[in-house]
Amino acid sequence: MRIDILTLFPQMIESFMNESILGRAQKGGFAQIVLHDIRDYTTDKHHKADDYSFGGSAGLVMKVEPIYRLITKLKSEREYDEVIYTSPDGETFNQPMANSLSLLNNVIILCGHYKGVDHRIREHLITKEVSIGDYVLTGGELAAAVMTDSIVRLIPGVLTDEQSALSDSFQDNLLAPPVYTRPREFNGWSVPDVLLSGNQALIDQWQMDQAMERTLALRPDLLK
Length: 224
Ligand code: SAH
Hints:
The protein is α/β, with parallel strands linked by helices. It is 34% helix and 19% strand. The site of S-adenosyl-L-homocysteine has 18 residues, from strand 5.
C-alpha cells in the first residue's frame, strides 16, 4: 500500500513515519509512505502557499493552486482509491474505517493548516473527509500520522504475529483483555493463575470473558 501525505510541515511527522512498526513496514516493502511539501509546488518567488481569506474573517487559508498541482501530478502517476482531507467536520475515524482503508492500494492524505484549505479543493479534489475526534488541532499532520499508523499495522504481514492485530481492542467490537508478563509475582501483586495453567482452552475462555466484562463496563455502546 502507498500513502502520500501532503503537508506544509513534513518535518512534523517525518521521524514518526520511520520508527517502530511504521519504519519496519516500509523496510519490509509492505507500505510506502511518501511525504510531500506543498510549498515545493508554489510558483511565485516567495513560495506563498497560504493567503488571507475572502470576506475578511481572521486567519490564513491554504491556496488552491499548489495543492491542485501536487494532486494532479500524483494522479497522473498512478490511480488513487481515495483522496482524503483531514478535517474536524469529517467522518470520525475508527477501527472499521482503518480496516477498510488498509485494503486499498494508493491513498492521498491532505493535511490542512491555519484556517484550513480553500474550499474549492474540498469540492473538486477530495473524495473523503476524516476527523480523528471532536477537537481542533493546529494542523492535519497529527491526524495523518494517527491514521497512517493504525492503517499500516493492519496490512497483513506488518505485525510479526498477525494474530496480535486481530486481538486488539475494537476488532470484533470488543476491548482487549488484560495482558501480563514476567515476573509472576511483583510487590505481592500476582498474575491471574489461569494464565499460568498451561490449559489453552481455559485461557481462551478467560480472555474472552475478560474482554466481554471490560467492554460491558467501559464501552457498552460497542456491544449494541
Ligand atoms: N477552521 C477549521 C479548523 C482548522 S484547524 C474548522 O473550524 O473546522 C487546521 C487544520 O487542522 C484543519 O484544516 C485540518 O486539516 C486539521 N485538523 C484540525 N482538527 C482536526 C481533527 N479533529 N481531525 C482531523 N484534522 C484536523
